[in-house]
Amino acid sequence: MSDPVNGEPMLPSDLRGVRERVDTVLEGFLSEKARGSDRARLPADFVDGLHSFVFAGGRRIRPLLCVLGWYAAGGSERLPAAVIRVAAALEMLHAAVLIHTDVIERRSTRRGHPTMPCALAARYAGKPDPDRFGRQAALLLGDLALAWSDELVGTAHLSARQRAAAGTVITAMRVEVIYGQYLDLLATGDPAADLDRALEIIRYRTVAYTCERPLQLGARLAGADTEVQAALTAYAAALGEAVHLNEDLHSVFGDRAADGSRVEDLRAGKHTALVAAALGRARGSSAVELRALLGNPGLDHRGATICRDIMIEVGARAEIEQMVARRRAQALDALEHIGIPRPAKQFLSSLAQRLTCTDR
Fold first, then answer.
1. Residue 154, Cβ neighbours under 10 Å: how many?
2. Which are the contacts of 204, defined by CB distance < 8 A and separation ≥ 6?
3. Burial, 130: exposed, middle or buried (Cβ in 10 Å; 0-12, 13-18, 19+)?
4. Pairing relationship of beta strands 109-110 and 113-114 according to DSSP bridges
5. Smallest Cα–Cα separation from 88: which of 154, 140, 171?
6. Which of 111, 133, 209, 151 lies closest to 30, judged by CA?
7. Confidence of residue 214 (pLDDT cuts 50, 70, 90)
8. CA distance 259 to 261
9. What are the residues facing 110 on neighbouring strands?
10. In this predicted model, what pLDDT tens digit does every residue of 27-77 receive, in sequence order?
11. In terms of Cα–Cα distance, which of 193, 189, 211 is closest to 202?
């Protein structure tokens, strides 16, 4: 059955307002932390800053997949508050990861707003070295978000079985994204025509963290059997790669010009699949020019345009678009061989299409 308003498959009514319910949990949690800070006469910066960051945007993909994992594995249609609280914890974890990423990569904007290091530096512009202070304070804020994500899970009133399952999945999720960030850091500034290396970074940094683990978490909270878990993993692994490859395309060619990332990623010389494909295909003067521009700290918008033109001319953009399409097809095929409720299957299919759309 499809929603007559937006054309998406209908889930039970208790599952259709997932984002709103997750945001309600986060709002209540952070409001209580703010009241606690006031009582203890602690600076309001941390809670206020984290609240602004969490509610500055984001698609809530991880909470949604967690909830879909619960429903796909036979969880009750009436979604328990405990599952929503765990889903909200994933968004708090994501905030921690993004804040730390912005410190590591020295990004200036995120979702059209100043990153946390830049916002804190601006707020304390009178300090002797406000930029250094902003980075240091942002690291602490990211650590706090990480601790609070644990607290959200710990106060979710899970059963003993669910606590054990959640702990295993969330720990794996955190370890994998840290390894992925480290692999990305090692490769940044040294882009090469090594597509396998780029895909390895994607699998650690994005595939498990964004799709596989959140879906697996919800399924395991519902007590999924190994067959359902394996099928959901096959779907999520293919989708996660497609999502990241599509994000690589949009960070260079898409709708992010406003936040400057179309230049930042190229200027940093990030070793993405798109870059690897371009370096592997470029020849002669195009190869020389591309290698001179990628990772150049002086790269400007004109240089970024040259990079994009070369990527199109040598067929790198088309290659990555084809990789996205193949992985999307693999994800959709995996759904055809899994015994889960039809509405969940339809929604997962719709989600795969939406997250890998190339026309945005």
1. 14
2. 176, 177, 179, 180, 183
3. middle
4. antiparallel
5. 154
6. 151
7. very high
8. 6
9. 113
10. 999 999 999 999 988 888 889 999 999 999 888 999 999 999 999 998 877
11. 211
